[in-house]
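Following up on my earlier thread - several people asked me to post the actual chain instead of describing it. Fair enough. Here it is, all 270 residues.
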Amino acid sequence: FETELDGDPPVAVTTRPFEVEGSDTGVVVVIQDITAKRQMVAEAEKLREDFFSMIRHELRKPLLTVERSLAQLGQAEGESPLALARSATDHLGAMIDDMLFLARLERDPMAVAIKERVSLRFLLAGCDLAFRQKAAEAGIGFGVVFPDDDVLFDADERRLQQVLGNLLDNAFKFSPATGRVALLGQCIEEDVHFQVADSGPGIPVEERGQIFGKFYQVHSDASRKPGLGLGLAISQEVVQAHGGSISVGESEWGGTLMTVIVPVKRSNNT
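Reply from S.P.:
Thanks for posting it. Predicted structure:
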């Protein structure tokens, strides 16, 4: 049984009778400090509560948008309500896809299909095209630094594009208007290096070891941005499935610098 006295740490008490030949029966009493166990249970419970709170909040928003947009269809002119409904359902679908993909990837790293040779310049050009308009609308300076010479490397192009998209999304999300975001790609020896830099508030050193955890939100409630907090967890799983690494530091503008390194040639043992 477990017990806790005032001023003393919680303990688990286990008793077991024993009998030695030629002597009376006795009892073995084992007392174990379970403070760490209690703390782990409390932390797990808090994580569970935070998760369900976030799910209720993040999944409810797009559904409410759909409901309101559909309710306006009979009153509004044009396609604005339909556009809002479509955007909300796309957002909801993306969040559900992220949760399902992460669960699948944790069970089976082979969910990342590294079966093709990918052009570094082509991958960077795709990111440039995908985020150029977003940067202009947000008033954020955006630049992509291409390598002088292209390189082909082993990768799951779709999933690696998703990783870079996640990092760029975060960079734009936390950068202020008139801020700056940059993406760099280059080959150094036998590895391909990607770096995403922004001029946002940055990530405190004490939190950098936690940002790749599922559902983790870096900033305070006052500056919290929408999202489930799965982007970096997914990114880490995908990069590790490539035999690579992902890390966080500080950019030259005082914001966040995310670095992804993947091998040009994937080892068969990865």
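The chain has two domains: 1-107, 116-263. That should answer part of your original question.
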